[in-house]
Write a structure and sequence with these properties.
- The complex is a heterodimer.
- By secondary structure, chain A is an alpha/beta fold.
- Chain A has one domain (about 35-50, about 80-250): P-loop containing nucleotide triphosphate hydrolases (Rossmann fold, 3-Layer(aba) Sandwich), CATH 3.40.50.
- Chain A is built from nine helices and ten strands.
- In chain A, strands 6-7-8-3-9-10 form a six-stranded mixed β-sheet, sandwiched between helices.
- In chain A, strand 9 (about 215-220) and strand 10 (about 220-230) form a beta hairpin.
- Chain B is an alpha+beta fold.
- Chain B has two domains: about 5-55 and about 275-405, no CATH class; about 60-265, no CATH class.
- Helices cover about 55% and strands about 15% of the residues of chain B.
- Chain B is built from 13 helices and ten strands.
- Chain B has helices at about 5-15, 20-55, 85-95, 130-135, 150, 160-170, 210-220, 240-250, 270-310, 315-320, 325-360, 370-400, 400-405; strands at about 60-65, 100-115, 120-130, 140-145, 155-160, 180, 185-195, 205-210, 225-230, 265.
- In chain B, helix 1 packs across helix 11 and helix 9 packs parallel to helix 12 (about 370-400).
- The chains are: A alpha/beta, B alpha+beta.
- The interface between A and B is medium-sized, with 28 and 24 residues.
Chain lengths: ~250, ~400
């Protein structure tokens, strides 16, 4: 495992202000994520984990503090620069998949590459490659509404991977999916992490979080625990991963 | 992302959402189509009125004899005097003082019964010279009009209007060469006039034209005229022509006091004034109709565009989250709006023209399309469509992606 820091967050705060009320969503949070980590962020609803996720994903800006992504200070960028960061460095996987409706899986995966200006043939090649990787090579021409929840989430994963992002961000990726399919999704995440992808995942389900290597607990906008996690049950379920994991640690 | 790619992306989005696209296009088609159809109907009516009035002759002066006056001071009907003669007409033609008059048509008209083996009719008999057809803008659909030779030889020939044909030859046989009886004298039909429209007492199609000499001497035994129609050289010089003819005839009739003239001159100037004011009223009515239709069409287009774009706020959020910059989003929606409104616009023009055509066929009225109304309808609707397709997209592209994604 390299020690290259991908995400560096220092004294990050996010305060939502209305005329009468001031809500502190994130209160002076600091942590780093290194390349190749698989981090689960846990916390009850209202703990600020989604806000943190949106800031890491360059979808939202912090009120104060610094956030360095690959050494660049994201907090100081304007909207179009943020769009570029989201496009180039972040692969976002949403709880509700957020695929374009009535659009084929290939075209969905190709969308961020189109915004990046990658030539059409390269786009198509990559889209097919990543759809194969998530096990959807038989569904290239299916439209998003013809797919199950788990299949749609796998399309979203392929889309997130297509731009070779520095980091994969997953916001409750299994939240809307039946448990057997959730299992498949987590296996894919494991596999991707083993290949060296950095993954940050939000979840409120402990058994999902247990499949990561590091669990950060957030409550009331503060980090209350940040621990490495080695659980035997992951290893039981996918024995082929065992060797890799042990090799990494 | 290249513009051409954005174009195909837009086209793709539009074809993927067929119902939404169809509704938006339909809104624009109806907006533009109704404006064009309404404007065309208004124009057709305006043209019809103008044609009717022009068919009467717009630079026409009519000299009529005044009312007869008995010694007891009882006034007879207007035109009952017998002082207007063919010599007056000839004098007007040959006079070198008169410069404003183009053509002179002396006329004698009366009503009488005409008979054919198939039917009979009480019809106006008009004694005319060849100039009559020019001055009154009479066209011949079949055969010829009365010629100078007919007048000189007092020929028993007649040119008849279509209403007369319908009354006298109900079996539809060819009237040319047939004989009709007027006051027990046989007349040969040598021509049929083109229908001018009009009905009732002033029906210009219910007339039998005979040579003036024949009417005066053989049919009615008179030597005076019932009117002299004069065609002025220029519709702008009607008042000058009226004065010129008035003084000329006063001098000829040796009358010094114009108020005791034994004739009157009616000009079409009054008619022209009426036309002008009618046309002006019509033009403003048309403008009003166009404005209201454009407003209604425009609001329809605005609504459908606002709804379709607002509905896609989440999609805009997703596209932004995946790295689309603001300009890309607004350009895509602009292209979509342009495709929608231009497609709808062209279909709307076609629909509007078809509707106008069908109405003109059904109502057997004129088919007139004004290019101005087509351009106006097209560009206003397209403008509104593009504005309200682009503006909400611009607004949505300014939202933080996370807000747009949460939008319900």
């Amino acid at each position: 495992m390299t020690n290259q820091v991908v995400i560096s967050i220092k004294n990050l705060s996010k305060i939502y202000k209305t005329d009468v009320l001031e809500t502190v969503a994130l209160d002076n949070i600091s942590f780093d994520v290194k390349k190749g980590e698989f981090v689960a962020i846990m916390g009850p609803s209202g703990s600020g984990k989604s806000t943190l996720m949106h800031i890491i994903g360059a979808l939202d800006k912090p009120t104060s503090g610094t956030y360095l992504l690959d050494g660049a200070n994201v907090a100081s960028l304007n909207d179009d620069q943020l769009a570029e960061i989201r496009n180039q460095k972040i692969g976002f996987i949403f709880q509700s998949y957020n695929l374009l409706p009535r659009t084929t899986t290939v075209k969905n995966v190709m969308l961020p590459m189109a915004y990046a200006g990658i030539p059409l043939e390269e786009r198509e090649k990559r889209a097919i490659k990543y759809l194969q990787l998530v096990g959807l090579s038989d569904h290239l021409k299916h439209t998003s509404n013809q797919l199950s929840g788990g299949q749609q989430q796998r399309v979203a994963i392929a889309r997130a991977l297509s731009m070779h992002p520095s980091i994969l961000l997953a916001d409750e990726p299994t939240g809307n999916i039946a448990s057997t399919q959730a299992e498949e999704i987590m296996t894919i995440f494991k596999k991707l992490n083993d290949q060296g992808n950095t993954i940050i995942m939000i979840t409120h389900e402990l058994d999902i979080a247990q499949k990561s290597k590091r669990i950060i607990h957030i409550k009331d906008g503060k980090i209350i625990s940040d621990n490495l996690n080695i659980q035997k049950n992951i290893i039981k379920k996918s024995p082929d991963v065992l060797g890799n994991l042990e090799g990494l640690i | 992302m290249k513009l051409i790619e954005l174009f195909f992306e837009s086209l793709n989005t539009l074809t993927l959402n067929k119902t939404r696209t169809a509704l938006a296009v339909l809104g624009i088609v109806i907006g533009i189509g109704s404006v064009i159809a309404l404007m065309s109907q208004g124009l057709a009516t305006q043209k019809t009125i103008q044609n009717r009035i022009e068919s009467l002759g717009s630079n026409l002066l009519t000299v009529q004899p005044g009312a007869s006056r008995s010694s007891g001071g009882v006034r007879g009907a207007q035109g009952s005097r017998t002082t207007l003669t063919l010599d007056d007409a000839k004098a007007i033609i040959s006079s070198s003082e008169i410069t404003t008059i183009n053509k002179v048509s002396p006329e004698y008209s009366s009503r009488t019964q005409i008979i054919t083996p198939q039917g009979n009719s009480n019809t106006q008999i008009q004694g005319v010279t060849p100039n009559y057809s020019d001055v009154h803008k009479i066209s011949i659909s079949d055969g010829v009009f009365i010629t100078q030779k007919d007048v000189d030889s007092m020929a028993r020939v007649a040119v008849v209007g279509p209403t007369v044909i319908a009354n006298l030859f109900p079996d539809g046989s060819n009237p040319l060469g047939q004989t009709i009886k007027i006051k027990n004298q046989n007349f040969t039909i040598i021509g049929v006039t083109v229908a001018k429209g009009g009905s009732g007492f002033g029906n210009q199609d219910d007339v039998v034209y005979v040579p003036l000499s024949t009417a005066q001497k053989q049919l009615f035994g008179v030597n005076y005229l019932s009117s002299i129609a004069l065609e002025a050289k220029n519709a702008d010089k009607m008042t000058a022509a009226q004065d010129e003819i008035g003084y000329f005839l006063l001098a000829r009739h040796k009358i010094t006091d114009p108020s005791s003239a034994d004739f009157s001159i009616m000009s079409q100037q009054d008619m022209i004034d009426t036309i002008t004011s009618t046309t002006a009223t019509f033009t403003s009515l048309l403008a009003g109709i166009a404005a209201i239709s454009l407003l209604v069409g425009g609001i329809g287009i605005m609504n459908i565009m606002l709804v379709t774009v607002t509905e896609r706020t989440r999609e805009i959020g997703l596209r932004k989250a995946l790295g689309a910059k603001k300009k890309i989003i607004t350009t895509q929606f602009l292209i979509e709006s342009v495709i929608l409104t231009f497609t709808g616009g062209i279909l709307g023009i076609i629909l509007g023209i078809i509707i106008s055509f069908v109405i003109s066929k059904l109502a057997s009225s004129l088919f007139v399309i004004s290019p101005v109304s087509v351009f106006l309808a097209f560009f206003v609707s397209v403008g509104i469509g593009i504005l309200f397709g682009w503006y909400p997209a611009k607004k949505a592209s300014n939202l933080q992606p996370i807000e747009a994604l949460r939008y319900e």
